[in-house]
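Reopening this ticket.

The earlier resolution said the output was attached, but the attachment link was broken on my side. Pasting everything inline this time so it's all in one place.
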Amino acid sequence: MEQKYVIGIDISKSKLDCAVIDFKLKLQSEKQVQNNQKSLETYFKAVLKSLNASREEILVCCENTGIYNRPLELTCNKLGIKLWVEHALKIKRATTDMRGKDDKKDAQRIAQYAVRYIDRLVEYKEPSNLIKEINLLTKSRNTLLSQKVAIENQIREAKTHDGFEHKILVKSYAKTLTALKKSILEVEEKIDSLVKQDDATRQNKELITSIPGIGSQVVDIPEHIDPLKTG
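Inline output:
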């Protein structure tokens, strides 16, 4: 069954601005809801009732905002409503009229983008727990690594400009650096162990890391793509 309506959603930490349009770009309704599963479920059920539409006739589109997307992703997955999580830059580049920018108009622009570029739709699929864990561990590894690099840079700069400061920093950061290196190694080993559990995930990683300049631990699998469900 084809979609008859698109709900464009502009997401922030605490709230979501929602705009419902049809495929003639006519605005049907606007509403602001709290960014939690209970509020979203209530909202979607009310929209379906007011439009006299089935869940299959609704498409929800939003920008990728990371963790703030999760209540929407979980709710759409639970209700069986098709969700399109698009890159913000793609929507911005496709938008010609940026006058009067605000959250309500952003929601409308997102909805209009989905209508105009429906042929580019990539439906969100809730990833497996394996992929979620790999992704979260990769993010943790990147955070730990950035902390380690920041400390090492501070020590390196002090070494070339102030010997006294360098000695103090080396001593004060010694235990922290040792702990960070140990944690990074443990996370990397865990990622490798999880990747080896699944053939598709391992093959995807081998393909990506075969590209020059990409190391084995910089693979960050998108949360909306589950190799276990592809192919």
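Reporter confirms the inline version is readable. The helical segments are 37-51, 70-79, 88-94, 103-116, 129-161, 163-195, 199-209. The chain has two domains: 5-120, 129-229.
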